[in-house]
Amino acid sequence: MGSCQSTPEDMPEDVPPPSVTPKRESQPYGSADTPKSKENVAPRPPEGPLASKSKEKSSSKNKGKSSSKGKDKKSESKSDKSSSSSKSDKKPSASSTTLVIKNSTNGAGGYDSSSWKLKKQQFYGSTTFKELGKKEIVQGKSVQEGIEMFKSNPEKYVAMIYQTNMVTDRWPANQCQFVLQHRKGTTNYGPKNVSPDGNQTILMFEYERLPPFPGNILPKQYRDKWTDTMTHNGQMLHTEYRLPILPGRGMGVCDDPHLKIIGDVDPSDIHQGAVGNCWLLSGISALAEFDGAIKKLFRKTKKLDQRPFDEPNMYTVTLWDLATWKEVDYKIDERLCAAPPGSGQLQLLASKPSEDSELWVCYLEKALAIHCGGWDKITGGQCTHAWSLLTGCKEQYTIRINPETGKYACYAKFNPNIGKWAPHANSPHDCEKTMWRCPWPRVGGGGDLDKEFTADELFKKMCAWDEENYIVGAGTGGTSDKNKTDGMVDNHAYSVISTHRNVAGTKICLFKVR
């Protein structure tokens, strides 16, 4: 199912007859498992003279719609890609060494050479990664030559791996072999089973956009009152060995020269993490279509466009309390929640930074989780609920198919039998689940509360809502988002970006979702 939001004047003032039958909300959208890192075993150089080169192993049914009136809609969007990197959650040991590469000149792509950090570790040859770019196997050169080659190209290579005794035993160049892992296309890359006894050595270049805090620990006086105690699936997220993540401070998340909180806000900035809150992210994505809507939520954060600063950062996010329908501010620190222990390398629990290194989604999602009572309180929900939290508008329409007639009817959380709105709460888990039939929005032609429309008639209304800049969302059927139907994820919430009639003269009508 999906939903439709309108301006207040669209809701009926007259109370319809008390014979209206209430209906339950459909199954909430959203469930996700913590993504598992892939594993890779580095090609192991031969123990004796050089052997032969190693081989590298290398349109759906829409269940509903939704809309809300907005302002100037954006016409362009960025490519929908995401990338991030991460580090192990183990404490530093004798098996790892960090060297600082100092240079006052700027490298290609805006990288400040002085911010590259070279980390050396011993391990047993296995690595983990989310995405793996090109792996370059070099033979016939000494390891020292390879190290110099690696050090001079930090923007090109993320890691170098070689057999430790090639250096300690001074192997001749014609018997040496090492691996250079390209940075492009590689994310969340790192060694497994780091140990001072490991027979392989890995060198990794990491970029620190902001100065790190000692031990990667934010001083207590700069912390908010929520992050340290947050849980997911009932499990404490942070411990002495599993710290919250400080983006841009050398912990492997958004260590990028282009790091910023907010830039050119776009719906494609959103990349869901391991929390089953697609309903919330879909609602945020739909709102991001409208200029200024997201920045308004951060309006009490001073110098937002210049952040993050080198010193500790705090961000104020303004949301709507649905019990009182009043705004409330949350002042949160710069730490982001790490995925729970057992999820592999240190990585974010929730949404990832945008393709161009914006963090606004991460901090908005964190504030919303706090506002609703924790991460478990935002697992599963409806995008209409997200819009209420973000805009303070209670006038939401939900369009659902009537299985008996095959036509669509309009619902809202307005009880016409008593002329009152159903009680609301910040978490969708705590809300009244009942909805009642209601008159259709006047935009698009209207219709009384008993009126039902065919799919073609509904599409015409969607076009009218799109032309009037309503926020629109949609959801798919099914019981698990692990399945797909015609390429669409089942039981998943989407934001509707645009509608198109008679595409290319084919008499086919389409709407675009993200």
UniProtKB/TrEMBL annotation:
One of the Pfam families matching this protein, by short name: Peptidase_C2
Compositionally biased intervals (Basic and acidic residues): 69-92
GO biological processes: proteolysis
Chain segments carrying region Disordered: 1-114
Stored Gene3D superfamilies: Cysteine proteinases
Molecular function, one GO term: calcium-dependent cysteine-type endopeptidase activity
Residue ranges, compositional bias (Polar residues): 97-114
Keyword hit for Calcium: no
Active-site residue list: 278
Database matches in PROSITE patterns: CALPAIN_CAT, THIOL_PROTEASE_CYS
Keywords: Hydrolase, Protease, Thiol protease
Ranges for domain Calpain catalytic: 204-514
Domain of life: Eukaryota
Protein family (similarity comment): Belongs to the peptidase C2 family.
Record-given protein name: Calpain catalytic domain-containing protein
